[in-house]
Amino acid sequence: MDPGRCMYYDDVPISLVDVRQYVQDKLMSQNKVCYLLPLVHGQHWQLFVLCPRENTMVFFCSLNWDIDKNTKKIISTAFEVHQISNGNRKKAITWLKPNTRKQHNTNDCGYYVMKNMLDIVSANITESWIQVFNDPTELTQEDLYDLRLRWAKCFFELYKG
What we know:
The protein is of the alpha/beta class. The chain has 5 helices and 5 strands. It has helices at residues 16-29, 69-85, 109-123, 129-132, 141-159; strands spanning 7-8, 35-41, 44-51, 56-60, 94-96. A 5-stranded mixed sheet has the order 1-2-3-4-5, sandwiched between helices. Helix 1 packs parallel to helix 2 (69-85).
């Protein structure tokens, strides 16, 4: 999903309703096993993974924050509308919060989101979130450098056209 459509601040015109509608539209128009939703609330990037077939939401936060109640509500509402429209009236959504790498500063959250997305896509992870993501250590400077290179290579290959 487009992170630019999922940014909201207390003083920016993109509202929670707009974010909910965007997520709901994406869920309705595509049929994926999992959706990656990088979202910035305030000044902090977080990652949500929406898995409709498993009726599961996975929340990654490099500062180990709890899910903002408004964010949880808008994502849950969009997800529930999608589930009901597809005739899926399963039990309540299962929310998971893996024990992921923790940042120890205030400005690297975007790298942690990118690292988690890269790990998910590279390994084709669609389940076993708690077992797969169980490393609370901080990314080293070498890890961050490698991550920047991997993403740069990915974008270069994609857009070298």
